[in-house]
Amino acid sequence: MEHRVVITGMGIVSPIGSNMEIFRQNLLNGVCGIDYISRIDVSDLKVKVAAEVRDFTATDYMTKIEANKNDRFTQFGIGAAAQAVEDSGISGKVDPFRFGVYFGSGIGGFNTFVSEYDVMKNRGPQRVSPHFVPKMISNIAAGQIAIRFGAKGPCISASTACATGTTCIGEAFRAIRYDYADAIIAGGTEASIEPLAIAGFTNCMALTQTDDPMRASIPFDKDRSGFVMGEGAGALILESYEHAKMRGAKIYAEVVGYGSTCDAHHVTAPDPDGEGGGRAIRLALEEAGYIGEEKVYINAHGTSTLMNDPTETKAIKYALGEAAYRAKVSSTKSMTGHMLGAAGAAEAIASVIALETGMIPPTIHYQNPDPECDLDITPNEAVSFDPELALSVSLGFGGHNACIAVRRYRG
């Protein structure tokens, strides 16, 4: 038996707002969350800007003792999940054995890894915290969310680098569609703005080194020079249509397609012909029943790197053909930076907001067109478009590609 799958709750922790109301407002107003790094000492680093979460308080969602036992990435994940669960009203209204968690991280507890290594180096192995491993491992956000909300169904933590959030949502969609669960908390989380991570990404030529926060993340702009590290978490409640209707839930949108592929090309660089990403988009469109007539919004991966943006442009054309030029495209990373494993979840939420409001969030700070990136990328200001179908595209290191298709809910 196949079920329709709907979205009944959303939660966000992001550089442009850590609740849905603020996030929605800032997203459509083109507010930039990128600024000079404040949480760590960057005096020895070439990179001085990032998209930090500045308005999140862990103790809004847990006790101080619980916060101390969880890495920042898990705190973000619990915060976003708590918002989504509350928004959905699902607590106490789902069989716990049919309630799952599909929640991932690209890197996991990087803060904990670095701090505990320093403890061992400076104070000896006997002083390493007994909480080190359960704070660090990348699946622990999913585990802690399941514990918090009594979700005893499938609990899976996928890690597909920058495609993680989208992969988790897509796999949750499949699990509900094919009757393995009635509802799932799906999403991703990341908190890796640390000197070691910044140095690593810088030295593999991925991060921009511009000192101007307003020209740092400039997707599809000819002057782009690398991505900006971001952090945060996004969570969505996916639920079977029948279960949602039975309990009278508010329905935001319907998940109608998912594509997952691999370039099998290079550990960091995308396949320059865009075929791998294009197949993921095409698979999502085929499952969604797209026939080329619906008004489409594409939340692009749009990292602002030299290679990603033209390659993704090719991927979109590969999947949609001439219809690619009729679609509205934007990269919300121009506002949030690249939230890594959380990016796909935050961008899925942005896609739902576009369907819900009829407004396309902009690609801000766009100045100089690149002839290789010639789609309508919604420059600088949100526009009214009233899309019927939204695609959220994620492309990760290792060649991981994922795309989900979300349709406006029609009943």
Task: Please provide a written account of the structure.
The protein contains 13 helices and 14 strands. It is an alpha/beta fold. The protein folds into 2 domains: 5-246, Peroxisomal Thiolase, Chain A, domain 1 (3-Layer(aba) Sandwich), CATH 3.40.47; 257-408, Peroxisomal Thiolase, Chain A, domain 1 (3-Layer(aba) Sandwich), CATH 3.40.47. It has a 10-stranded mixed beta sheet with strand order 5-4-6-7-1-8-14-13-9-10, sandwiched between helices. The chain has a two-stranded antiparallel ribbon with strand order 2-3. Strands 11-12 form a two-stranded antiparallel ribbon. Helix 3 runs parallel beside helix 6. The radius of gyration is 20 Å and the shape is globular. The model has no long low-confidence stretch (mean pLDDT 97).
Question: What's the helix and strand layout?
Answer:
Elements: E1 5-13, H1 20-29, E2 35-36, E3 49-50, H2 64-68, H3 72-88, E4 99-104, H4 110-123, H5 132-136, H6 140-149, E5 155-156, H7 164-177, E6 183-190, H8 195-203, E7 232-240, H9 241-246, E8 253-262, H10 275-288, E9 296-299, H11 308-320, E10 328-330, H12 333-336, H13 343-357, E11 359-360, E12 383-384, E13 389-396, E14 400-408
Helix pairs in contact: 3-6, 7-13, 10-11
